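COURSE: Structural Biology Practicum
ASSIGNMENT: Worksheet 4, Part C
STUDENT ID: 0417
INSTRUCTIONS: Below are two proteins. For each, the amino acid sequence is given first, followed by its structure token string. Answer the questions at the end about the second protein only.

PROTEIN I
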Amino acid sequence: MKRLLLLIILFSTLSCGTTQFIKTGFDETSVMPALPEDAKVSIITELPENAKRIVEIGICKGSVPGGGMIKDRSDKAIEKLKECARKNGGNAILLKESQDGGFYTTFGYSQQVAKAQGQIYFIEL
């Protein structure tokens, strides 16, 4: 019974994550409607020069519990950024930072938290 309870707690904490949004676009065009959950959000390294319209929306930060020594969960932190972008009307993320926090054990590195941060844009090509 104790093992079952421990497994339930473990799986519920692994699926949790947090996001934080900071609005940086302060004109009326920066207020965008939320996008559907299945809308594509691209990770970009620079703003496209050939875009018809680029709207700066804000900064999203995402974090998820780490995978310990078993799995790198940085991809889950980026998924949290994509969710934040969709909620705020963004379809592109200029990734600013991706990091993890953990420590080394005798068995290897143990990831305790995975974090990502990016500037959110709506880009019309």
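PROTEIN II
(use this one for the questions)
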Amino acid sequence: MAVEADRTNGRTDATDPLLRGEQAAAALQAALRKAGLRPLPSLKGGHPILGRSFVDLGGCETEPIFELAEWIESRT
């Protein structure tokens, strides 16, 4: 899985919580695209909290959120 090089600053250790947050955000963006949904523009890996990886979902206009909610609802 590719992670934006400008955000990882050359980090490659899979146990690095900052890197793991970036990887998780990239994985979610890729999954959204694969599902035919718009990516969330503010989705990014955040700074670790208490040493744990974190993803910042941020703010987003409502339409991609409604699309995501409908997609999830149709599969549950």
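ANSWER KEY EXCERPT:
Q1: Confidence is low (pLDDT under 50) at residues 1-6.
Q2: Residues 17-34 form the longest helix (18 residues).
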